Amino acid sequence: MAKKLWGGRFSKSTDKAVEAFTESISFDSRLIEHDIKGSIAHAKMLGKCGIIPEDDARKIVQGLRSILDDAISGSIKFDASAEDVHMNVEKLLFEKIGDIAGRLHTARSRNDQVCTDIRLFLKDEITRTVGLIRDLQKVLVDQAEKNAEVILPGYTHLQHAQPVLLGHHLMAYFWMLERDKGRMLDCLKRVDVLPLGSGALAGTTFSIDRKMVAQSLGFAAVSDNSMDSVADRDFISEFLSAAAIIMVHLSRFSEEIIIWNTSEFKFVDLDDSVTTGSSIMPQKKNPDVAELVRGKSARVIGDLMSLLTLQKGLPMAYNRDLQEDKEPLFDTVDTVQLSLTVFALMLETAKFNVPRMHAAAGEAYSTATDLADHLVRKGIPFRSAHEQVGSLVAYCVENNKELFDLTIDEIHRFAPESADDVASALTVEASVAARSATGGTALSEVKRQIEKAREMI
């Protein structure tokens, strides 16, 4: 068995079972490009600061760039006995340039190295995730504009509440995603800090230039405390938290799509390209994308819980437990980005059943509040108006009638102050149009939202 790069203190080889248990190259190989870029910046700094000969620094950089080319082309074969991505890169560098490679690890540790790799990785993935959120927002705005005047029931407690415009309903998710985007960008501020130069935990005795490395790698700042730099993963926890909220939002929307897609509702028809069938029932067309997004939200929430639990009992500074941070992180990145992608495709190709939505909007006494508001305008206190309309609804239930079925005499029996033309205020169109206060469901407000959204994206 090849000698470990850290093996000077040891007289025995690592047991194969322990080697298999402790290796991380099977998953942290994903960081190889970031690891090499960090090493290139570190080597250049070592040479410029005179910590290693500049000629050696140039050879190290050339060797690393060659390895980077191999990594990009996918031609690297990783060695599990070299444990992790850092040691694999160093091993490959020794093979390319010989003993000079041994100078690269001067003034750094795998502890600050891995934190740098993860932060570089997260900076890229946050930017990519924000782009996918924006893509979904564009689809939402397009569908909201296309269906701005479509009326459907608004629900609370999954019971008919008040009529709303479909454009208004869809834009609610736009604003949720806007906050998701804001959380991601805010998280990026705390990710964008260079830990390299912190060493194992106490810093380094060499006169390094951390600002030079930060500038080379595009970091906005350098960390202030070496122990904090290598010991904490709150920047990952914050990312996972923001990601979990994204998935909760997508899951809620998925639940509505699933309900709307049922034969009982028939509010939406999902495209064949984003649905699947049954192996036994020929008639089935299942909303699998929405169901899987709803299901995968549990994975991301679980990833967040895993990382928080992982950190809760760790003493300062670095502990090997932190090797377990990467798989939840990678899983979350992949799950969120794929979910955003397929959700946008599902929504973009969805077709809404306008007549069915409109018919449902007028059912279940959905304009009862409009009648109460009408009475308030006649001088009746809202609580009294509420009671009168509640009694009128009870009458409708007993007589199997909707509000729009009532005669003016029937309305006057329970609400004597109502005007003779009150029926005109009880249509779903009038109900929607009346809610023109900022943020309301009136068409003018929906158009304002859409215009504002387009400017934002």
Description:
With 457 residues, the chain is mainly α. The chain folds into three domains: 17-106, Orthogonal Bundle (Fumarase C, Chain B, domain 1); 111-149 and 161-353, Fumarase/aspartase (Central domain) (Fumarase C, Chain A, domain 2); 360-456, Ribonucleotide Reductase Protein R1, domain 1 (Orthogonal Bundle), CATH 1.10.40.30. Helices cover 60% and strands 5% of the residues. It contains 18 helices and six strands. A two-stranded antiparallel ribbon has the order 1-2. Strand 3, helix 8 (210-217) and strand 4 form a beta-alpha-beta unit. Helix 6 (110-146) packs parallel to helix 12 (326-348). The longest helix is centred in the first third of the chain and has 37 residues, at 110-146. The radius of gyration is 30 Å and the shape is elongated.
Percentage of residues assigned to helices: 55-70%
Q: What's the total count of β strands?
A: 6
CATH class of the largest domain: Mainly Alpha
How would you state the average pLDDT, rounded? 95
Give the quaternary arrangement of the chains: single chain
Strand content: under 5%
**Given the helix and strand composition, which structural class is it?**
mainly alpha
Order of helices and strands: HHHHHHEEHEHEHHEHHEHHHHHH
Q: Which superfamily, in CATH terms, is the homologous superfamily of the largest domain?
A: Fumarase/aspartase (Central domain)
What is the total number of structural domains?
A: 3
Q: Given the structure, what is the number of helices?
A: 18
- The fold-level CATH name of the largest domain is Fumarase C, Chain A, domain 2
